[in-house]
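COMPLEX REQUEST
Ligand: pyridoxal-5'-phosphate
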Amino acid sequence: MKAYSELTLQERRDELAKLQKIYDDYCGRGLSLNMARGKPGAEQLDLVSDLLTVLSSADDCYDDGIDVRNYGNLTGIPSAKRLFAELLGTKPEEILVGGNASLNLMYDLIAKAYTHGLLHSERPWSREPSVKFLCPVPGYDRHFKISQSFGMEMIPIPMDENGPDMDKVEALVRNPSVKGMWCVPKYSNPGGIIYSDAVIDRIAYLKPAAPDFALIWDNAYFIHEFSGEFVPFRDMLTLCREAGSPDMVYEFASTSKITFPGAGVGVLAASVDNQKYIESLLTIETISYDKINQLRHVRFLKDKAGTLALMKRHAQILAPKFTAVLDALDEEIAPLGIANWTRPKGGYFVSLDAMPGTAKRVVALMKQAGVTLTGAGATYPLGMDPLDSNIRIAPTLPPVSELKLAMEILCVCLRISALEKLGV
Ligand code: PLP
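STATUS: Structure written out below.
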């Protein structure tokens, strides 16, 4: 196979005609495949379904003398705080164990910033003349949607294999209207990169002009290796405390990709002063989260060793799916020089950069052939990828056989779109 840039016009035309036939054949098959969202597959859900029966009697519902069936313990049961503190490397008093997932806790934090302000706010963000947020790109679409829905101005920050461009970040936080930053520091969505130590240090030592700058440290994939051993990760609460900004960071995590997405447990780790402030607002909002589910998780996961052992079993299911994606791209696309992609060792995604100007076309061709991908541009604020290049691949949901087929089709669509772009 020759690189597409070296093909003559006639060769490109011949290649396109050949690919078009293959593509038409896929379209005629009436397929319905999905590589759009980072959902665990059925096999992973089966793996954790003992969670459904781990509490089966009234007696099972007592924990540290607390009856979890009743109101109380707004910020979480002590055993769940201990479990997540151990997993995240923080202290139990820095943990709030919330409801079924973490995105809602993130939204709630931003909503509180707008309605009431954060601990060090001079006024609620709704009364600020302008609120800007730093958005490392490509990033998680739902973060950007939260910012968008509150009317923030989003400032894209380029990412490389070490994390966000810190020169840009350090310059921008001198502006007091820059109120925060979205970060997925370990196995980022979608790139699957781990922020380097140097980047993490620079983030911890940021000195934003806004006294209430909120570092949203979304550690969604904190123990989610699918290849190799668990990679220990530094505790951002400790680092920010050491840097003299203990209240700057709000760390989030959940069991969505450990047990059941949508029926897991979400966690917010923050300084004790932040926790006190948040609790003072939360106590108006709810009387108690679902402590029965918290206890189920504690009994099922037990401790860090138990949880990491479970993650190894998830990894056995996930690894072949990521291999299928990378093998297809390495074999079919690499020799053609028309795209680049990441090679993560954990998380839920592969980030694919198609030939600039073709991502939308690729996603549309895939849709027509019956394969749903995350919308092109979704990984950028307002859905606007300036290069129209980035595509997020989410390989976890389909079985390997379906995934292989979806990847075959994706490779054909990448090739067709690149040829069209090069001119035929
Ligand atoms: N944060 C990131 C980076 C994610 O990728 C996801 C889900 O894909 C979430 C948060 C959602 O987590 P939860 O289910 O805990 O709301």
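REMARKS: The mean pLDDT is 97. The longest strand covers residues 153-160.
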